[in-house]
């Protein structure tokens, strides 16, 4: 369980550090990666939803066994981003450098899958206790 706690605390911290500055660099995005965004609602919507997921990771880290079911959508969150970049790269719509942005999420996805398996036995024991007692006491 310690592995899962460290994994999700680290993922949340990394995500906040990477995503939070995006709220303040909207005007510079086009300078570093032209063209400039033309729909601020999509840009800020992406940033907001992504930031919210970082706090989901913090919640999971508090009790990975209890919140184990949330690890599955967390994996899909990572797979969705990585798969999108891979498809865009195969279609020659992004560069190798832009594809490399998927590396941290790929690594975190593998850690999330590992955490899912490492918490399985404790989750099953926890679920049996809940069923036997009619709820946690």
Q: Structural class, from secondary structure content?
A: mainly alpha
Task: Give unreliable regions as ranges.
Answer: none
Proportion in helices: over 70%
Shape call? elongated
First and last CA, distance: 21 Å
Q: How would you spell out the order of helices and strands?
A: HHHHHHH
Rg value? 18 Å
Q: What is the tally of helical segments?
A: 7
Instruction: Please tally the β strands and state the result.
Output: 0
Main sheet summary: none
Mean pLDDT, to the nearest integer, reads 92
Number of domains: 1
Q: Provide the β-strand percentage band.
A: under 5%
Explain this structure.
There is one protein chain. It contains seven helices and no strands. It has helices at residues 2-19, 29-32, 40-62, 71-90, 96-99, 103-118, 120-133. The chain is mainly α. Helix 1 packs antiparallel against helix 6 (103-118) and helix 4 (71-90) packs antiparallel against helix 6. The two termini are 21 Å apart.
């Amino acid at each position: 369980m310690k592995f899962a706690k460290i994994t999700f605390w680290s993922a949340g911290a990394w995500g906040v550090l990477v995503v939070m500055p995006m709220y303040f660099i909207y005007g510079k995005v086009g300078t570093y990666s032209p063209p400039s965004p033309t729909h601020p609602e999509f840009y800020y919507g992406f940033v907001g939803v992504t930031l919210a997921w970082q706090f989901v990771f913090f919640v999971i880290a508090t009790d990975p066994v209890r919140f184990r079911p949330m690890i599955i959508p967390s994996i899909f969150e990572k797979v969705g981003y990585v798969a999108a970049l891979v498809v865009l790269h195969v279609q020659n719509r992004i560069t190798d450098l832009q594809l490399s942005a998927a590396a941290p999420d790929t690594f975190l996805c593998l850690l999330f899958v590992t955490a899912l398996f490492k918490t399985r036995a404790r989750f099953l024991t926890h679920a049996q206790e809940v069923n036997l007692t009619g709820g946690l006491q």
